[in-house]
Amino acid sequence: MSLLSPAEGWFDKKVSKDEKSWMIIALLLCISMFIWMIMWHVYGKQNPSSITYRTSTAEFSKLSEAYQKQNIVGTDAGIPVVRPQPNSDVIVMAEMWRWSPVMILQKDQAYKFHISSRDVLHGFSIQPVNMNFQVYPSYDYVLEFKPTESGEYKVICNEFCGIGHHTMIGKIVVIEKEEDLKLYGYENFKKAPAPLAEKKNEPLTETEMVLLGEQIYTLKGCAACHKTDGSSQIAPSWKGLYGKEEHVIEDGKKMTVKVDDAYIDESIKTPQKKITVGFENTPMPVFPLTDEEIKQVIAYIKSLKD
Ligand code: CUA
Question: What CATH number does the domain containing 298 carry?
């Protein structure tokens, strides 16, 4: 313990050679560990990063049902089998006690999984690769998945979720060529229908527009703030919104507008132009949607009647 100041010029005194080399070694070690921290993310064979969106079990259930209805190519032990297009969104539902759907994927093609739970916490673990995710209800986990080897993969639930936990085993089949389907007894399963959005030449029906609008609502994150059950905590609920008279503020002036196609279009493209009274503190970000997508969102909002 010292109550006195150190001797004059102590800071400029030469550090002994040993001490200096240890300091350099420690510094290099710190820097290399820091670099590895970043490199490990890429080379470390660990969980890939995922993006999470807020959703609700009701919304995700609806989405999952719509997805399976649209993409089903057969069933396996009572569970729908889908054959998603490469680079498409795949909706995966966890529930007591099954994973659905069964997926037929193409080797070396990327897919975007959206995973959520209908009831309790489950664990999404693809065997035998090291992939491990907790799947909570009300969250949409987005996971890029690109199988690099063909074969059958099991999806194991690794969070205890009740009496049937051990039976909760899903299936992902990765094929290289059409003949591989025979290995799994899937030879009669035809190709997945083209996604609705890619349907060429014929206009979409109203029902398809609503379905696509709902997908945008869930997948692009509108659902995080806009509810469809009439509750308006962060942003106006979409239920019964279409056709309603809304009080808004534009350039500091209060006015009333009717919610129609033009108003919704403007609100998506320039959300700060007219701000709904009561939501001044929760400004809406700009979502880059195409005009076509905006039309689908409008169709979805229209379908949500009071
Ligand atoms: Cu689901 Cu354990």
Answer: 1.10.760.10
Domain that holds residue 153: 52-184
Which atom of ligand 1 is nearest the CA belonging to 159? 2
Q: For the chain, what is the mean pLDDT?
A: 83
Q: 105: closest CA among 87, 125, 124, 83? A: 83
Q: Which residues contact 257 (CB under 8 A, 6 or more apart)?
A: 245, 246, 248, 263, 274
Let me know if residue 41 belongs to a domain.
no
Give the ligand 1 atom nearest the CA of 161.
2
Residue type, 118: R
DSSP string computed for 43-84: HS--PPP-EEEE--HHHHHHHHHHHHHHHEEEEETTEEEE-P
Question: Could you tell me the CATH number of the domain that includes residue 158?
Answer: 2.60.40.420
Distance CA 274, CA 234 (A): 16
Same domain, 168 and 219: no
Residue-level pLDDT at 247: 92
Alpha helices (H) in the chain, listed in sequence order = 17-43, 57-71, 206-219, 261-269, 291-303
- CB 286 within 8 Å of CB 199: no
Take atom 1 of ligand 1 and give the residue whose Cα is closest.
122
The sheet carrying 151-157 orders its strands as: 72-76, 79-82, 102-106, 169-175, 151-157, 122-127, 131-135
pLDDT the model gives residue 42: 74
Listed residues 121, 154, 184: the one ending a domain: 184
Q: What is the pLDDT of residues 33-86, one digit of tens each?
A: 999 888 877 776 655 566 788 888 888 888 888 888 788 777 777 778 888 888
In terms of Cα–Cα distance, which of 242, 245, 244 is closest to 304? 242
Distance (angstroms) between ligand 1 centre and the Cα of 123 equals: 6
Asked whether residue 6 is assigned to any structural domain, the reply reads no
Please answer whether residues 107 and 177 qualify as being in contact, where contact means their C-beta atoms are separated by less than 8 angstroms. Answer: no
* ∠ CA 239-241-245, rounded to 5°: 150
